[in-house]
Fold each of these.
Amino acid sequence: MAVATQLEILDLRHFSARQLRPLLETESRVWEQRLRWNYQSSTELLLQYLDSRILPGFVALDRGRICGFAFCVYEGQKAVVGDAFAIANDSAQMLQTTQILLHQLLQLLLNSPGIQRIESQLLLYDAGSINEPFLSAGFVMYPRLFMEYDLAAPTNSPQPADVTNLPSEVELLRWSADHYQPAAELIHECYLGHIDAQINDQYCSLHGSLRFLHNIVRFPGCGVFEPNASWVLRDRHTGSILGMLLCSRVAADVAHITQLCITPAWRGHGLGRALLNHCSHRLARAGFSAITLTVTESNNQAVKLYESRGFFSRHRFDAMVFDKTNSQT
Ligand SMILES: CC(C)(COP(=O)(O)OP(=O)(O)OC[C@H]1O[C@@H](n2cnc3c(N)ncnc32)[C@H](O)[C@@H]1OP(=O)(O)O)[C@@H](O)C(=O)NCCC(=O)NCCS
């Protein structure tokens, strides 16, 4: 606790990108080591925002030296914790500084009358390691898994691309911009009453699902979208989209599945597995060495599907949600 008393916490908007760059570059290396994720493009984008001095957040200083930061972004009445990261001599001190920053950020948000909901998914942190500021503020916790499939492992030779076994009325198409609207409708339908809609409220509306898609396809937050490794399944007769798998590149040789969903009426017919197999087959041929994804631990169907295809859990982290409407009932 002695450490905390030496820390000074200041408004993030007092700091320039140049001052924060060394800290962010350290964080970028941690992403690479822990999650095989090249965070460089996200870092550069964040530095641009920092220079515009519009991000709400805090910086921790230890004897005048920057040793941590946390920020959030506003999406209407919702705030999303964008990041929290600290450096220190040991991991206990690092986690302590991170939690002090989070505590400060959450207090700011909880006392902002316009904010109804706060979401957070800080992937770098092990489940349970930075919970205290969230739980003491009344957040609900959803454990999630960061899974990986090693395409280079000899035991994981890619599954045959069994799209040839698709039902005759189902066709496989590469992702194209024409699919935005029907794909958003599919996402909205697939996540009705789903646990992931409690974690990310974009899934709860068609407008939000479209926004989610735009974020994945246009912005580098979840890696750089890979149109050549993203697929939709379409009903040949009705033209409706039955399923999709979207993929991004998060490092030179690592792909990340950002979305996999199958329309409820077609679940259990092997379509999810077919998309996954097809994708891993194509990515292996394109020289990728691994595929990663995140999944909510209690989403049994999805976890079972991934494990049956050879994915393993590399890391377990927490999604945290605070909703004023729920907390008042
Ligand atoms: C997860 C999802 C994509 C699976 O698609 P699907 O086409 O129904 O899955 P498949 O028919 O290809 O099943 C493949 C495997 O998944 C698992 N699985 C699928 N449905 C299951 C169920 N209801 N219960 C348990 N396991 C199930 C099984 O391991 C199955 O293999 P098996 O048939 O040999 O037992 C689909 O349920 C879905 O869209 N869910 C909602 C969105 C979602 O959760 N996406 C994943 C987010 S990370």
Amino acid sequence: MFDLHGRVAVITGASSGLGLQMAFGFAKQGADLAILARRYDRLEKIAEEIRALGVRCLPIKCDVTDTESVNRAAKEVIKYYGKVDILVNNAGSSRNAGVLNMTDEDWNFTLDTDLTGVFKVTRAFAKHMVEKQYGRIINIASIYGQVGNTAMDTVAYHSSKGGVINFTRAVAAELAKYNITCNTLSPGYFETELTADTLRTKEFTEYMKATVPLGRYGREGELNAAAIFLASDEASYVTGQNIKVDGGYTTV
Ligand SMILES: NC(=O)c1ccc[n+]([C@@H]2O[C@H](COP(=O)([O-])OP(=O)(O)OC[C@H]3O[C@@H](n4cnc5c(N)ncnc54)[C@H](OP(=O)(O)O)[C@@H]3O)[C@@H](O)[C@H]2O)c1
């Protein structure tokens, strides 16, 4: 089960953190990959390491906020592989402030990357899934797409990720007739470039211990199993769902 040989997976935001970890996870299941991000030098090195696992890997410079860049990336993937089976919308960023202090610029930056970027990438790649009547779309949201929080002011991030969860449901309903599934994965707290500065503080660690039943942050690679499941043939009857990988944060 969960064999991805013969499948082509596109992962956005694969130059670091969870996207990078999922790229290795998918490669170990046999998937060929296209890895997208803005830092191309990093992608080239990662692609070399992934190829050493015996699969193909195409690095592509892509800014998910830029329609032309996204459409070019889709063309490049189709030219190289002839198809796309799996899309992981993982690229994300955040400018944090509360509703009273948030600037238009920071709000738009966060929404453009975390929500509109997911839309643009899905639009560009899903039409190639429609042609083949097969697809697995996995959108990375967050626990913060489902709840507010008292630890820090991150109103734009909550808004984007909540949008991603319902975008997923709409796309799942729309594309089901083409044998395309679309699901959300909502990670809890994982230490990455995005979060390390916050998660390493004593205050946040105490907050985490009080609010995460498993009492720890997510470990490297701990998101992979759920992503691989949703990407697999075996998940053929699962669509529109939101799987939380959060140590229990959203259950209490
Ligand atoms: N870590 C957590 O605790 C956590 C929890 C819940 C949800 N998440 C979500 O998980 C996803 C990955 O985050 P992470 O923690 O792994 O953070 P990360 O290490 O900072 O990785 C973010 C990735 O997104 C890419 N990216 C950012 N803006 C982009 C843009 N405009 N165009 C293309 N790529 C862009 C970055 O690559 P370049 O800079 O090279 O473009 C990088 O590869 C995000 O959607 C995040 O919101 C993370």
